[in-house]
Amino acid sequence: MDTQTSMDDGTGRIETSAGGELNLCEADGNQEPYEGMLFESEEAARAFYDEYAGRVGFVTRVLSSRRSERDGSIISRGLGCRGGSNNKKTESLAIQKRDRRREGCTAMILVKREKLGKWVVRKFVKDHDHPLVVSLTKRRSTFDEKDKKIQELTAELRVKKRLSAAYREQLLTLMKDVEDHNEHLSTKVQVVRNKLKELEAKRQELLHHR
């Protein structure tokens, strides 16, 4: 019995088989699926294919699921490309779904559960029948870089604003000191002028008395 269900992403080690033996290997960030590739779980296989789709530039969907007749657990999963975008608003959703089933992209991966509980890639179709979009991972990376640059510029602007405020405060303080100093000098000058006037008055008084 085949049913179509969706599974949450998971993580797990990727393994490969050689001569019937299982060998652990590190997942390369640019690695693509291949027949015989082994995963610890179906969730790990799904997560790997989703990550691969994001790098290449397409969106995944569940194509098929097969359950065990004994206990009902999933024993195989088919994952594929959702296909090119369909922007024909005049078409009904039912027609779009029917067209996708009839003309869907053939790119897919089929993973099956082995007796030891491992999941192995039994079929992998790489080619797509439509143009791929910009890599979702690269697009997200570009957004992250832009956000980082905006944050850096914002932080720099805050620093410059604080420096500007500090410089303005220092300038106002200096101007106040200059004003106070000028006022003090003006007061001294006025005192000197008054003294000179007093001396001049006394000198004139002495001249008149002669």
Q: Give the helices and strands as they follow along the chain.
A: EEEHEEHEEH
| Rg, Å, rounded | 41 Å
Summarize the main sheet: 7 strands, antiparallel
Query: What is the mean pLDDT?
Result: 76
Helix/strand/pairing category = alpha+beta
What's the β-strand tally? 7
Main sheet: strand order: 2-1-3-7-6-5-4
In terms of DSSP E residues, the strand content is: 15-25%
Coiled coil: 150-209
Region (Disordered): 1-24
Protein name: FAR1 domain-containing protein
Domain FAR1: 48-133
Commentary on this structure:
- The chain has helices spanning 42-56, 93-103, 136-209, and strands spanning 14-18, 21-25, 37-39, 60-67, 74-81, 108-113, 119-125.
- β1 (14-18) and β2 form a beta hairpin.
- The protein has a domain at 37-83 and 103-137.
- It starts with 13 loop residues before the first strand and ends with a helix.
- The model is unreliable at 1-27 and 86-91 (pLDDT under 50).
- By secondary structure, it is of the alpha+beta class.
- The chain is built from 3 helices and 7 strands; from the N terminus they run βββαββαββα.
- The protein has a 7-stranded antiparallel sheet with strand order 2-1-3-7-6-5-4, covered by helices on one side.
